[in-house]
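Renewal narrative, Specific Aim 1. Our central claim is that a sequence can be written position by position from structural information alone. The example that follows is taken directly from our test logs and has not been curated for this report. It begins with the structure tokens describing the chain, in the order in which they were read.
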């Protein structure tokens, strides 16, 4: 089958090479529609909503089964240009799309990636902002915000403190999109620094803010993810390539340790949507001259591809009842790393847990029943394009078809405020205030 696909790839149409230049909305749409038409068997182009000014928020799906989710095929996404004046990521995603579709059936690694992964690419979350930039600038322009003058990376629900902002259509569209898919891994692409930043971006003492950081229960995985990207980017991994900016050892940082922010997208993904997301700052200059775009592509291509492959870390499977029926809304978590919003199976009874090699105990919980514990060992050398597969057959007798859809409830409110260690110490000190003021226009 693999050989047949490689041979078939040699017969597929070759589109004209995408130029290294900035593509405005009409040009970007034309490119995406051409790709969707020429590679219809492995792509799906759709709009998840519209911007304030009515521009489509395009997403191109690439995979062997692009039209719908398939059991065992994890969902991955890249989102770029949520700050309209941070432009490199927008163009990198267009070139990554071209790289993937034109090498399917010709390049074994790319073909395996397409076979095993459903990849979603949103080149621009803030097309109004991009079009609003009249004079490109390395530091700041009025295109950063959407056309209602809201920073979209401050527009999501926050688990640590109230974020009573008016929800913008671009953020609302992304939230609805996340609800509709089973995303496992993601990155959002920014500019203005050179670093891979991982959650949390906000925090409370219980997550480590008294030590000037805010760590998730999956900190080992997040550090690995950030390192995977930064280590393959020869400039980012140096950690000190942007003048007048902080130095980042090995090119990675905890978001809160850099500076705290409220209402960010990566924390929202992780807490409420079971999707591990990091923030990739790809260029010291927010809007560099387009002659530099080949340089950025060459520095980031290997990282972009290797990061997608991390969606196959850990363990995946389905949870079944005694009759072999898949069970949705069952909590499946590692015993010693519980999430404040418990991770649950999707409507097909699937779970995906990103884990590094090691031995773990999975805690499978259904309301009204004792937890079911099962051991799993993630090998050091797992398959490159598949997590360890472990289906779980629950031993419970009786009816299990009435599991509540939202048990326990996980409302989009500051859930961490209720933890015992919450106090006035959560307020940023003078140092944090100064760092925040200095970097306020970066992330």
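The sequence written for that structure reads:
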């Amino acid at each position: 089958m693999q050989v047949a696909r490689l041979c078939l790839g040699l017969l597929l149409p070759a589109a004209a090479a995408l130029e290294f230049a900035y593509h405005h909305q009409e040009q970007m749409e034309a490119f995406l529609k051409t790709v969707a038409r020429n590679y219809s068997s492995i792509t799906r182009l759709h709009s998840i909503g519209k911007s304030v000014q009515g521009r489509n928020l395009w997403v191109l799906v690439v995979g062997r089964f692009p039209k719908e989710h398939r059991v065992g095929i994890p969902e991955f996404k890249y989102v770029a240009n949520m700050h309209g004046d941070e432009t490199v990521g927008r163009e990198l995603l267009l070139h990554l799309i071209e790289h993937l579709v034109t090498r399917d059936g010709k390049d074994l690694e790319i073909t395996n990636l397409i076979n095993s992964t459903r990849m979603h690419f949103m080149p621009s979350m803030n097309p109004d902002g991009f079009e609003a930039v009249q004079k490109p600038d390395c530091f700041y322009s009025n295109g950063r915000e959407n056309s209602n003058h809201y920073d979209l990376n401050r527009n999501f629900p926050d688990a640590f403190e109230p974020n009573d902002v008016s929800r913008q259509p671009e953020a609302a569209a992304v939230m609805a999109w996340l609800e509709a898919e089973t995303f496992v891994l993601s990155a959002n692409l920014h500019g203005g620094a050179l670093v891979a930043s991982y959650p949390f971006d906000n925090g409370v003492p219980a997550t480590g803010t008294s030590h000037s950081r805010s760590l998730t229960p999956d900190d080992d995985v997040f550090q690995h993810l950030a390192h995977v990207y930064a280590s393959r980017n020869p400039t980012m991994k140096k950690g000190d390539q942007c003048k007048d900016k902080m130095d980042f050892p090995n090119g990675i940082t905890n978001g809160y340790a850099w500076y705290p922010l409220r209402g960010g997208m990566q924390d929202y993904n992780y807490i409420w949507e079971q999707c591990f997301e990091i923030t990739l700052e790809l260029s010291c200059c927010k809007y560099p001259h387009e002659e530099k775009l080949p340089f950025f592509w060459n520095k980031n291509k290997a990282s972009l591809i290797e990061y997608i492959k991390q969606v196959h870390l850990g363990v995946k499977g389905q949870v079944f009842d005694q009759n072999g029926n898949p069970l949705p809304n069952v909590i499946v978590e590692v015993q010693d790393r519980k999430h404040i919003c418990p991770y649950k199976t999707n409507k097909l009874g699937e779970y995906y847990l990103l884990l590094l090699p090691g031995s773990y105990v999975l805690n499978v919980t259904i309301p009204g029943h004792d937890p079911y514990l099962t051991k799993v060992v993630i090998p050091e050398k797992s398959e490159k394009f598949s997590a360890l597969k472990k289906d779980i057959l629950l031993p419970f007798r009786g009816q299990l078809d009435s599991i509540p859809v939202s048990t326990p409830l996980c409302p989009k409110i500051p859930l961490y405020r209720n933890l015992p260690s919450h106090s006035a110490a959560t307020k940023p000190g003078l140092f944090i205030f100064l760092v925040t003021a200095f970097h306020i226009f970066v992330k």
